[in-house]
Amino acid sequence: MSVIFQGSPDHTVGVELELQLVDRETRELVPVAPRLLEELPDVDWAKPELLQSTIEVNSCVCQNIAEAEADLSQKMGQVRELAARHNTAVLTVGPIRFRDGQTRR
Questions:
Q1: CA torsion, ordered 53, 20, 94, 64, to nearest 10 deg
Q2: pLDDT attached to residue 92
């Protein structure tokens, strides 16, 4: 059985990033998200998460991936600049894969 996709010219894309905040020296998670969110200008694209070491950043509704990339690059620049003032680095992380301890590097 085949599935036929019926495309539409008005499709959009949006991206949500979960950003972990870590100390630049120790690389430990640091609970600075509330402080960073307070110091960001009045924005609706940065939101708190359950953990105080994580911020959610959302793209606007975009017409294509290039537009989403440009939007998120600008927003990530703001977050990174602000985080650096607090000796904090910003990490984007995906699922962590576990491997046999003998082959892990």
A1: 120
A2: 86
